[in-house]
Amino acid sequence: MFAVGYRKGLIGLYQYMFSSVTSTQKLTQFSRFHAHEKDICGMFWRFSDISCGESTVDLVSTGRDQFVKVWDVEKSWCHSSIRVPGSTRASTSSKQSSRSAKDNNGSTGTPWICACQTKPGYELWISGLRGEIYQWSMNEVSSASPKSVAPNIHTMLIFAMRSIPNSNNLLITVSQDRQVLVWQSTEQNLLVPILRIPTLAGGISALAQSDHGNGPVAAGVSDGSLLLWRPFPEPYAASGALGRDLVVLWPRGQNASGITALAWHPSPKHESLLAYGTEAGCVDLLDTAKQRKTTNSNKSKAQPYMFGTTVYRVVWGPRLFDRDSDGGNIHKQIVPESDICHEVGHHLSGEFEGDVTKYDGSLERTEEANSLHDKFSFYVYSVCKGKIFCHLGFQRTPLDVTLRFPQPSGTNMDEWIECKRTDISFLNLDKPRNVKGYDPTCDPIIDFFDWVVTLGYRDGRVDVYVRRRSTEPGKLHPSNLFPLCTLSTQTKGINCLAWSYDHYRIAIGSNEPFITVVDLTHILLSAIKSSGFSHIKSSTCLARLQGHCNRITGLDWSPHDPALLLSSSFDGTANVWSVQVGHSPQNYLSVANFRAHRLRLFSCLWSRTESDLAFSGGELRHLLGWRPSKLFHTEPPNARRYRPPPVRKAQNIQPDVDNSLPVNNCNTSVSISSPSNLVAANERETQKSSEVDTSTGQPESITKSISAKKSDNKKTSEKSRKRPSLFPRFLQRVDIQTNQIDVTSFPPIQISSKLAQVTHVFRWLYDSVPLPLGEQDLLFLLPDSMFTRRQLIRFLDQQASHHFQAYLTAQNVNGLMHLDAYCMILLWMGRVSQVSSTIVAEHHMPFWLLWCLNMTKSTEPWFTEQSVSGYDLPGEKAKEMMSISSDVFICATILVSAGRSTDAVNLLINSNRLKEALLLARLRLDPQDAHPLLTKCLELMIRNQTTGDVPFLNVIYQLGYGTISNVNALIQRAIISQPGNVVDELAIYWTQFVISLRSADSSFSHGAMLQLIRSCLLAGFELSDDDESLTVGEKREAYFSQWKLVFRRPFGSTPIDSSLSVVFPILDSALLVSRMLSQGGYVHMQISMEFSATRDQLLMLLDQLTINRMSSSQWPTCMLHVALDLTAAILVYRPQTDDTEMLRQEQTKRLLQLTRALQECAKLDSVKANRLINNLIIFSKELGSAGAPLHSAFHSLLEP
Asked: In what order do the strands lie in the sheet with 259-264?
């Protein structure tokens, strides 16, 4: 029995009637009653303590009317109920209230209530209207309202609450605040959160982490939320701030646009300040160290200045321009950094809502503040609308500084103004860097310059500016900013610019699929040594990193190893590059590739706290942390967008509950596993862990660890997701040969590969000639034997190996489909242990496969069919799978695993999977039980024309059971139903003749012989001059001579019947006519008259060949009639021992037929006919007096 909740508060109870696989499901309604005034939110069955020897089961229902009720289902009576405290928010207008009350039964805007039970008894856990959790003890009659136990954990509505079966009083809640929490009920009836499962409701658009201390990883999400994640390494796990490892903030409210750009404040003094940009064009600051109010989380904040389009980059940079550089108006907008930070603190705490202009009320106050600011004053710069903006307060119009940068020399003014800016990056020269030829502590560049600025353009170029270090720190000189150079290493829009931590190197990524790394050390040194700045253009680069197949979206240098560069791309992968100095073999190569993402990547980040940890995020709502030294792949795939199987990824990314931190913070009482326990999704782990340096406690060099791996993966192009055929090579052929004449072969015809299948099976059955390697699957159409069974097992092993190899080489979503097919075949063969080891090794454990392994009753075929008694669990599971996915192979495998092979075969037949049904019946069923199913499969395959490349499938089947008479009938039917040319008919009649020789009934061979002779003559006279090596006459002579040898040679142990020896004079006559048609002179030829049959028998056979004789408009048919009539005339006009009236009448009849045939030939081609008649006159003279009538008749044909 199960319950269903409906709108308007109705509950229905239904009884499920179990049925077989082939029958339909049946539901019987038990009862139906009105439970709540508004919609049903949820229901569950409550188990009470055992009393009086038995337990009772009640139905608990929750409704949007804020009531929780407990029902006795037998009586449809509510014996307990309680109302959840709180009230819903009122509508803002009466119109909305009336509409709310009218629509949806008054449920619009009303709360959602959930409830569950962790252990049998009277205590229930109930969710509140604002994310609270209450406890309700049903045995306390005096309790008028539930008791609040978790008021401040969830900040928004809980829409799912379920207990975890067979656990230590655990339950799980899912809230609208994007939190999934696991709770434990203590013995004191308290609810304690023990684990938080991080969730994302949108794609990751930006990643950032502060360079100071152990700051969190900030992730901008496309739904408008901001994720702050503190991935503590192992040494900090015990001392980390409990409850602060994962925080979700909504800077612009629940309904705001996605966050597209992030930047932490570069100063340690203000490292908690985070600048962000949104898709709607908003740029603002967020103080992550301050407590956030949650009461108005649903209310969108007042927006600052909005660009209206996406902000692609936000960065912190210095104050570049003097207040008088733009008509003396700039100074009124510049605000000291101390004031900005002070303003932001009030703004974020909700205590200050005024405009920042009140902080620069007078010029004197600004001057005083300027004298107090730090050595470097930082402001937020953003890239939007193809321009560069400087934000001097976030509720006023930002300052457009695009054209304030000096114009590089040698550039066109109009082009420089119109070209769109796409990125900006700052390099703070606050510490010495590695400069070749100088001591590491003596960097001459930082003594001369304090900032390097790079601007990226849509056309692919990058402008590099430097700012001369001022001798007066309190003042700005606009003339100190100089254009240093223009880099032209890309041809498409710049997407990302990243400066190295220890060198003057910049990595450039664009819409091109490659990355360029430029070393500016030489250019900077040249600028120092020169007397004046001279702008130069450069198109050379230190390295060109190729491997990605789509645009580059993110770049980040490793802060731990200056030689490693991290990149992300639209091809769905993140890559680690080695950009070392010197002559290392790892220079400028790809050393690791992460492929767990399925869609495009938008950002990547190297951890500031761990050397072997990187992060990547994209549009599929996944933020993944992975270790480059553990990756299996070293190079990106060659597909434009790599999409690995999602199941592997889900199997590897799971939090370790045992290592989770305890929770004792009531504000954010959650915990998450440390990233060191996370395994890179869809990557194989190395057998040995990396060595650790005892002095530093850090893993060895990532580059050395990765370079020691050998990757043998094959890259394939992306394909669409589709279930592959289970037996793709069954009854399928690669090379298809057609019927053709070959005068050098024996017999002089090469039959087609489809017809040769019949001959191969026939010779295997009667002469024990082995089948060719490509025809082994034809044995499965024959009766069962030990040999055919061994061949079947061998064939299934080959098919399984084919699927496994396809799985290993596939790099798209079809890979797991092949692995599923591999496991299905092994389960059909009963190899359960092999399937178990495979799915464990490959980390692929779909629920249906685990269910099949659990149900498997035997490891050998031909076990006794399992009888169905009571509840048919496998049948119901198969029907459920058919209703969900319609995957008949999975359903059949479930039935096979449960010992229901007959039902599985019938299911495949009903689903038109006939080839799989045929092989499964041969493999799993007894031969007697399988015979009717095999016959049914073959009939349906022939009727549906799904025989593949074996059109004579039924003929092969009948051969196996020794019914040659049926075989001849099927071949005759094939000739009628599939008309072809003369060569095709000759091939079919030859095959029929060979088979008919093994028949005990000579009439079959007699009829096959006549049809073969007729087709043989027609094919011979149809030969054309298409071969330059032989003439038509030579081809015909060789053709008919070969057929004479064929018929003289016994076929196996059965010689030709003596009554059919007429074939030899017929072939001699055909050969004689062929020679007479040639352009050469007359060639004498003796007609063989050695035959054991009587003259009357031979004439009767010739009459059977010329039955239904009609005038023909085709030359080969005329020549056929001439050859047959000439043979009959020679038989009756040769010297005879008897001279009777009956003989003379027969001679007159045969002569008349021959002259008519020659007249028909003269109508088609008079030249060839006259040549033939002249040669026949010469031939008749050689017959002597017996040929005189022939001589006169031929002469009469030549007279006009």
From this structure: 259-264, 273-278, 283-287
Judged by DSSP in three states, 765 sits in: helix
Contacts of 1 (CB under 8 A, 6+ apart): 13, 14, 15, 16, 30, 73
The string of DSSP codes covering 937-982 is HHHHHHHHT--TT-TTHHHHHHHHTT-HHHHHHHHHHHHHHS---H
Alpha helices in 181-319 (DSSP H): 234-237
Residue 423 — φ and ψ, nearest 5°? Answer: -160, 155
Q: Can you tell me the distance from the alpha carbon of 588 to that of 1091, in angstroms, rounded to the nearest whole number?
A: 88
Contact 355, 396 (CB under 8 A): yes
Torsion angle, CA of 1108/1111/1117/1118, rounded to 10 degrees?
A: 130
CA distance 905 to 342: 77
Burial class from Cβ neighbours inside 10 Å (0-12, 13-18, 19+) for residue 719 reads middle
**Residues 980 and 1038 occupy one common structural domain:** no
User: Which residues lie below 8 Å from residue 921, measured CB to CB, with a gap of 6+?
Assistant: 901, 905, 930, 933, 934, 937
Could you report the per-residue pLDDT of 258-289, keeping only the tens digit for each? 999 999 998 888 888 999 999 989 999 988 88
Residue bearing tokens 């004439």: 1099
Say yes or no: 182 and 50 in one domain. yes
153, 266: one domain: no
Q: DSSP assignment, residue 912?
A: T
Asked, as a colleague might, if the bond just before 1200 is cis with ω within 30 of 0, I would say: no
Say how many domains are in the chain. Answer: 5
Interhelix angle 1141-1164/1166-1182, nearest 10 degrees: 150
Residues 1024 and 1151 in one domain: yes
pTM of the model: 0.52
Please state the separation of Cα 299 from the chain's center in Å: 41
pLDDT tens by residue, 839-860: 888 888 888 888 888 877 544 4
Does residue 1062 contact residue 1093 with C-beta atoms inside 8 Å?
A: yes
Among 50-59, 943-952, 1040-1049, 1189-1198, name the one with the lowest average pLDDT. 50-59
* Encoded tokens for 97: 């209230």
Give the β-pairing of 505-510 and 283-287.
unpaired
Structural domain span for residue 1080: 1002-1196
Distances (CA, A) of 351 to 276, 282, 288, 336, 436: 21, 21, 16, 21, 53
In a domain, 959, yes or no: yes
* 635: DSSP letter: S
Per-residue pLDDT band at 866 (split at 50, 70, 90): low
Whether residue 7 is found in the same domain as residue 130:
yes
529-555 per-position pLDDT tens digit: 876 778 899 998 988 999 899 999 999
What's the whole-number mean pLDDT along residues 401-406? 91
Q: What is the pLDDT of residue 460?
A: 93
3-state secondary structure of 371: coil
